[in-house]
């Protein structure tokens, strides 16, 4: 350390001492400054390990004897050079539990590249440094300081450089969702999930599952979806209703239950009352001649939907609410196995989907989802959709097919993530992928429980209640 180094350190220390003096807002003058200056140099020598008599005394390095306005005879020591500033760039942040690989680079403030020799990062991050990359199989959520030891290659290699930054490992979105129980004392409370498996008519199996969505569980809200099943006899009809209560309606959980159970009960009764209307013999001869079957479906399914509306209105009046507070969709299907194949009649109001799927023949969508002016809007079961016979008939479809792998009904909590567009809804390959996932589950002894668990699949932005019914 030479004289100039000592002077620079002394001046810095003198600044500190001056600032530490009570009320000191300017350089002290005369003897006070001389005393402080000598103390600063003495402390600096001691810190540098140099005896006081080993360095020459400067005459007046900071002009302490000058009067205001006078110019010092000697210039002040030059300021110490600033340390080299380095900038770290990480290609992308990590996400908890997901394999991670990201390039990391270091540059000078001027943009010149700097070699990163190694990286210091907490083992808790689950991430290591390998040849210019941050890598990890299962990173753990958090913010982790990292220190990169660097070197600049050139005419004279500079080592001992360090650059610091923070790596962010974002938490897995799934871990951010809460599961809060709904109020069991509230009117119309229902369990957060439900499922059922029954032997259907004609040797079929019916499996239905309903699961409260993450968005409702996070707030402690109710499962607004519901379903109902009715089998009229071993060789009779399979009846399934799937309903989705409006999220904006205060008592839609009650409306969805009323609609589902009323619809299948009334449809079962009407099937018996109007049994003679079903042109089974004609359909055995010509599967395309469904005009008579549509008329029969009007009297059965149309009546079932209308009675469901009236049942909701009656409950609303009983509990002192408006019918719109019980708003719900309704997907209703009646299936019967006949000699020429499978007879299916459906009534559809609202969103969601009803489909016949066959691995060889593809998919047939049995209706049209209702949509409103804005995304997420739909129609609900109410008197306006029962306004006249043509409106009711528009929502009824009848099909006779040689065979099918599955008749599926689902609320939009399932159909939206799987079929996000109209093109996807009619894409046989998309339905094939869905069927490939759920078909193995339906062969298991606990098929209903397995389907319930499957409904908890992850789809970003799709966290509504989910209900699916399968006749196979």
Q: Might you state the CATH topology name of the largest domain?
A: Phosphatase 2c, domain 1
Tell me the CATH superfamily of the largest domain. PPM-type phosphatase domain
Q: Give the SSE order as H and E letters.
A: HHEEEEEEEEEEHEEHHHEEEEHEEHHHHE
The profile of the biggest β sheet is: 8 strands, mixed
**SS-derived structural category:** alpha+beta
Number of domains: 3
Average pLDDT, rounded to a whole number, is 88
What does the overall shape look like? elongated
- Radius of gyration (Å): 39 Å
CATH architecture of the largest domain: 4-Layer Sandwich
Tell me the span between the first and last alpha carbons: 90 Å
What is the share of helical residues? 25-40%
Could you give the count of β-strands?
A: 19
Describe this structure in words.
The protein folds into 3 domains: 1-81, no CATH class; 86-172, Immunoglobulin-like; 177-471, 4-Layer Sandwich (Phosphatase 2c, domain 1), CATH 3.60.40. Helix 1 packs across helix 2 and helix 4 (252-273) crosses helix 6 (291-319). The chain has 472 residues and is of the alpha+beta class. Helix content is 30%, strand content 27%. The radius of gyration is 39 Å and the shape is elongated. The strands form 3 sheets. Strands 1, 2, 3, 4, 5, 6, 7 and 8 form an 8-stranded mixed β-sheet that branches. It is built from 11 helices and 19 strands. The model has no long low-confidence stretch (mean pLDDT 88). A hairpin with a 5-residue loop joins strand 9 and strand 10 (205-211).
């Amino acid at each position: 350390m030479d004289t100039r180094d000592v002077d620079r350190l002394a001046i810095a220390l003198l600044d500190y001492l001056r600032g530490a003096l009570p009320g000191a807002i300017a350089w002290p003058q005369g003897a006070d400054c001389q005393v402080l200056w000598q103390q600063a140099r003495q402390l600096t020598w001691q810190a540098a390990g140099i005896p006081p008599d080993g360095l020459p005394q400067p005459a007046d390095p900071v002009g302490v004897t000058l009067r205001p306005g006078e110019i010092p005879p000697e210039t002040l020591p030059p300021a110490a050079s600033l340390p080299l500033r380095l900038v770290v760039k990480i290609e992308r942040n990590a996400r908890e539990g997901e394999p991670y690989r990201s390039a990391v680079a270091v540059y000078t403030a001027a943009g010149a590249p700097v070699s990163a020799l190694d990286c210091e990062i907490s083992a808790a991050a689950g991430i290591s440094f390998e040849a210019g990359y941050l890598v990890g199989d299962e990173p753990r959520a958090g913010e982790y300081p990292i220190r990169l030891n660097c070197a600049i290659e050139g005419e004279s290699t500079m080592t001992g450089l360090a650059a610091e930054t923070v790596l962010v490992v974002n938490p897995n979105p799934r871990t951010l969702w809460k599961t809060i129980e709904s109020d069991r004392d509230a009117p119309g409370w229902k369990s957060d999930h439900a499922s059922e498996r029954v032997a259907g008519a004609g040797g079929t199996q019916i499996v239905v599952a309903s699961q409260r969505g993450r968005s409702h569980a996070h707030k402690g809200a109710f499962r607004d979806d519901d379903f109902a099943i009715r089998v009229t006899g071993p060789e009779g009809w399979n009846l399934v209703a799937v309903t989705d209560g409006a999220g904006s309606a205060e008592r839609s959980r009650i409306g969805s239950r009323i609609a589902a159970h009323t619809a299948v009960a009334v449809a079962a009764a009407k099937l018996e009352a109007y049994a003679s209307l079903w042109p089974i013999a004609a359909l055995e001869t010509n599967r395309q001649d469904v005009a008579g079957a549509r008329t029969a479906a009007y009297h059965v399914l149309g009546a079932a939907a209308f009675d469901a509306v009236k049942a909701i209105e009656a409950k609303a009046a009983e509990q002192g609410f408006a019918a719109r507070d019980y708003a719900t969709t309704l997907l209703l299907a009646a299936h019967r196995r006949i000699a020429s194949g499978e007879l299916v009649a459906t009534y559809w109001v609202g969103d969601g989907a009803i489909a016949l799927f066959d691995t060889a023949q593809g998919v047939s969508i049995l209706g049209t989802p209702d949509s409103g002016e804005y995304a997420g809007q739909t129609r609900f079961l109410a008197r306006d959709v029962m306004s006249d016979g043509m409106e009711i008939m528009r929502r009824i479809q009848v099909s006779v097919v040689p065979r099918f792998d599955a008749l599926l009904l689902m609320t939009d909590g399932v159909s939206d993530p799987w079929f996000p567009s109209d093109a996807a809804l009619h894409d046989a390959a998309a339905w094939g992928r869905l069927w490939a996932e759920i078909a193995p589950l339906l062969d298991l002894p606990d098929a209903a429980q397995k389907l319930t668990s499957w409904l908890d699949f992850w789809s970003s932005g799709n966290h509504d209640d989910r209900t699916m019914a399968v006749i196979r």
